[in-house]
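Weekly sync notes, structure subgroup
Attendees: PM, AL, DS (notes)

Item 1: joint prediction request from the bench team. They want all two components modeled as one assembly rather than separately. Inputs as received:
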Amino acid sequence: MKLYDTLTGEKREFAPLGVEVKVYVCGITPYAPTHVGHAMSYMAFDVLRRYLEFRGYRLRHVQNFTDVDDKIIRAATSQGVATPQLADRYIEEFLEDMDALNILRAHVYPRVTQEVPRILEMIQALVEKGYAYHANGDVYFRVGRVSRYGELAHRTLDSMIAGARVEPGEGKEHPMDFALWKAAKAGEPAWGSPWGDGRPGWHIECSAMAYHYLGPTLDIHGGGQDLIFPHHENEIAQTEAFTGARPFVRFWLHNGLLRLGEEKMSKSLGNLVTVREALARYSAEALRLYFLSSHYRSPLSYTDEGVASQERALERLRAALTPQDGSPSAAALDPDPYRQRFLAAMDDDLNTPQAIAVLFDLARAINRSREEGADVHRAQNTLRELGAVLGHSFTVAQPRDVDSSPFIELLIEIRGELRRHKQYELADRLRDRLGSLGIVLEDTPRGTIWKRERAAS
RNA sequence: GGCGACGUAGCCAAGUGGUCUAAGGCGGAGGUCUGCAAAACCUCUAUUCGUCGGUUCGAAUCCGACCGUCGCCUCCA
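Output from the run, pasted for the record:
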């Protein structure tokens, strides 16, 4: 299996260093509802995880919550709640959203507020080694000490300064130096430290947590492309300076960003669709199919038509899984060539668009073979199995509420009687009226089936 | 200004030197089935890959220029 590594800029054969694959994925800063851009990112890493496990690897997945930060403090003050309460609320929401999207939970979700002692240890060590220095209650990382600084972003320190948007910063020796520890302002959450009360800077928490939960070398570190610089660049600098071991990360994986209209979807720009809004309109599977229909490293635009079209596409895959009736009279359909193609696609840096194309090919083959009377049970099992690798179940997620089901079935029964007596006008009226209420009827050789149409407009 | 990515059918999106007269999905057209529908199935729907040059026996795929879009350089998945 090959994975594209941002650091080297090439696809390389992947194998974990030890018995388990060590995966760290950057989590969220919980101060606002989860949006579909997060969903896309975590879905990409969900598929990575499912595929690695499918390939027989054991895996340990750590994902942080940055639950102390300027934006959290600001949001908490403006809403008149304490920062831990605000963070807790959004963390809970985030986990619920991930569950709703069928994204597997990480094995560990460390939080900055619970890791401060370890973060302080790391900062202290960096100061002792000369990689960091103290200035007015802040502690900064000395970027100039790291000759490779900029290697992940493929930039040099000089070229970054030429960009000119660097703020000098009071106590900084070098404009690109970044804070490991920030002195507390009045009323802010703070912890004691050798440099006075304060809180961790933005990047150090990931270094400390990754080191503590996974060790000095990670097999895979993931996140959105917007984290490459400065966040991940700084993680490399901190961790390698601290451990003295190289490389900190063997494979850097970054997903392309979701756009809304012409711009990246982001909290700061305010152009976003929350996961809850999306799930109110579309099924989780349609959203998943939409995201996976594009390669994880490519940017993708979120559009209603796009997700809606996947809702219809999904119906085709589900239809291919409807049970076969009658006993097969022809040779069974052999799904192995499809399986091979699926694996080849996934082995090539998780080429989910191609893998999905294989699933549609297999679905078509199943439908065709079934009409010809061939045994499709094995092929259907393969479709189900490969779908599950992508996190799909293809089950008719019918919000079949107990209240109306018996009545709908009664109406269908009566319509059946009408049809038997060739009272088609009345029968069609029933079907039309149910249709306008969002209930779709289909007359099949096995009888009439119904399903609820998802409102999509 | 610096660094990087991308531009493939009506829409979305794979493919990155010959198997490509380019996968798959949505949409569209015709047909089979059906009381009529729906679903399913079959057939068709880019001789062409932003534009212009170049390299090569051969390019959507490599190189150059140009046009356009986006990302990072500041918080961000």
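Discussion: The longest strand of chain A covers residues 218-224.
Action: AL to compare against the crosslinking data before next sync.
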